[in-house]
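User: We ran a pulldown and think these components assemble together. Before we commit to crystallization trials, I'd like a predicted model of the whole complex to look at. Sequences follow.
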Amino acid sequence: MPEPMFSRAFLASSLASDTAMTPDPDAFLKERSASATHRVDEVPLNALPGWRADDAIVHDSGRFFSVEGVSVRTNFGPVPEWTQPIIVQPDIGILGILVKRIGGVHHFLMQAKMEPGNSDLVQYAATVQATQSNYERVHGGRSTPYLDYFLEHAERRVVFDQLLSEHGDWYLFKRNRNMIVEVPEDEDVPVAEDFTWLTLGQLRRQLQRGNRVNMNARTVLSAISYATADGPAADDEPRDPFHRQVVESHTVGGEDAEVSAAITWLIDQKAKYTLDVRRIPLDDMHEWVRGTDVIRHLEDRYFRIVGTSVTATSREVSTWSQPMLEPTPGNVVALLCQRQSGVLRVLVQAMVQPGLTDRLELAGTVHLSPGRYTGPEDRPPLADYVDAPESWVRLDASQSEDGGRFLRADTRHLVVEVPEDHVVQAPDNYRWMTLGLLSRLMRAGYYVNIEARSLIACLL
Amino acid sequence: MPEPMFSRAFLASSLASDTAMTPDPDAFLKERSASATHRVDEVPLNALPGWRADDAIVHDSGRFFSVEGVSVRTNFGPVPEWTQPIIVQPDIGILGILVKRIGGVHHFLMQAKMEPGNSDLVQYAATVQATQSNYERVHGGRSTPYLDYFLEHAERRVVFDQLLSEHGDWYLFKRNRNMIVEVPEDEDVPVAEDFTWLTLGQLRRQLQRGNRVNMNARTVLSAISYATADGPAADDEPRDPFHRQVVESHTVGGEDAEVSAAITWLIDQKAKYTLDVRRIPLDDMHEWVRGTDVIRHLEDRYFRIVGTSVTATSREVSTWSQPMLEPTPGNVVALLCQRQSGVLRVLVQAMVQPGLTDRLELAGTVHLSPGRYTGPEDRPPLADYVDAPESWVRLDASQSEDGGRFLRADTRHLVVEVPEDHVVQAPDNYRWMTLGLLSRLMRAGYYVNIEARSLIACLL
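Assistant: Here's a predicted model for the assembly, 920 residues in total across the polymer chains.
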């Protein structure tokens, strides 16, 4: 269970809509963005400097990541068998946010960071976002600021620390270490260029506007819990009625019995669905065309693998080349919520994704990828809620996926609250859960997928 | 957290050394063993009826399991790179024990079960031990008794339910669903032939004698916790001083902060050690000879893959053939314990094994496999404690590994309690933990490996 002390502090921070530390978060982003130059060009995949394309696309150093083929068989979903390219990155990176009480309110040290794949190139990132290759300085770049706060955590207050999965459709077995570490109020933390302290209330606003808080920051933020033993104090009550429901939902369902029942249900789902994934040479993929410039699906569905050349002045090294995965546009993830017996619950589904470490995790209510469907008859269950009446929509914002690997990968995030008397007909692999329960499951490891966590972060 | 009610009931049961339900557990096993005929013959691997040997050895139905090759790279341990055969069984089987309060004491419904690989062929097994192929009756055998208690658990009291890993050196990604389900006192449970109710005290005795409680029962039993909020009541105090220490150790270290600190330490270990596993055709293995009869290591180290033909009257079907893995003899697992600040702690290590779902889990203090070492200079850290003075030894018993897949795989289980003033020098990937902490980690998923759980079961 998260420490109640932090829950209360985070809730107070989420109600602080501004701070003298960063009077204008929009202006800060804009200013940092203007102060650096960035340029992302598409270049032929087979002529990427530093990379070899053979059975797989690998870096000359053997580090960073590779693009390989997989053959997948599953009884989940409409397609029983397919092949696809996938990004393999077995290292464990660190995504860490430093928090510190400043003027009585907890602040989060965020970084204005350029990522080549983001539509809005510069967004708020975690304090540290470092692959293992990064922090071991394989490419001889600049050292990662603030890294020691997370590597040498023995004397620190670790608020959250867990391995959490990333996009199981695009990454094989990828997970990162998500950390929140508190610095004592009296410890001086120098604020480097590109960094600034934000309250959670400011981050909420940025999240609601979309494309301003990057994926790696969202996954860490999703670990924040408002659960307290005795509910929010009167002066902690959010005035916004939906936010109040969210906070209440955090305080319910985190009991051991609820967690056990949810795990039992999840194991039932794991036993029902099969998944077999084998790594194969890129040339053995059916339905994919391996050109010299790109790897693409025969019918241009799903995504492409492209080569990029990046030049920047605000990153560890100033020029590099790398393959990236560019999804077909139009992806939507949606979370259905409903007040049930006085508590807000969200509808999650047990979803198999080929790259997940243990077959399936909890996903949002709807994953809608136009690239996956040939017509409206192929739409997944509950997809119609994406077109819910405007009065039901609590959040509608575009968010960037990991801009270090995915090119122009914007996903529309939707949170829809259906009225209490509305009946949702969901298949067996769907289940209503409180945010308190989801938070407990997240702490235990690989139970909640990145798409669901990203939606949960948007609800903070 | 386990429900304290069960902790107290299980502790009381562990102090009940006999019961009218099964006056003589030894005689029951012996009698069931005599009442059935079993015969296990080695047959050539390439002529196993029902199996095809090609890139892998697979069953004609495509079900059950396969024997495949893997190529492994890791920076854990002395060998950086190797190939080996491995058993692939992605299905999720059920290992379930029914418990019921009878005459005021909780009893466990155990089955006298023949398994072809066991040295003592018939041993106490869980109430249900069924692969998915088993319970979906792929081979058209008899239905599995008591299975519905576990499949239809919605109305039942589920005491424990979690996916737990199995031998990561011999299985790829294998895990089973471990369940303990309570039947209400007033519900009649017919006792089928081969089944009998035992107290935990009787099971303890059987575990201490060795080769009488099979691996699948041991893994379920390891989930039993004696943790209560307020410690054992006076009349629950075990008289045996070591047993009393074990029970006390169950009540300490299960707090959330301890669990979080242990997970943080484990993630540190996961970030330190690398593991890359690829499935390869059996013929691509180096250092292994693929004969028509067996697959063996060039120097006859590690293990062999052999063919077996089994005839039995006490199993679902009476005759079948299957490949089995036969380890080189002499394997030892040992757990070091020490009373520290008044509480018994055990020394576990973070150990990489190629078949684990997420790279590494907690293992016992020593895994000693003579097949792995060419001389005494290759012995793993702390291996000398296997030869500890007799006065330190709390348990020394041979236990069978899964007799459905492993042939003559007896592992010596050692529990050694070092004196309080003895200093143990352990490498960084070792850590002292209470049984209460290990129990909490087990509940969260893939944190404690089968070898460690088997040792913990022997400590009950």
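Residues 1-460 of chain A form one domain. That may be worth checking against your pulldown data before setting up trials.

User: Thanks, that helps.
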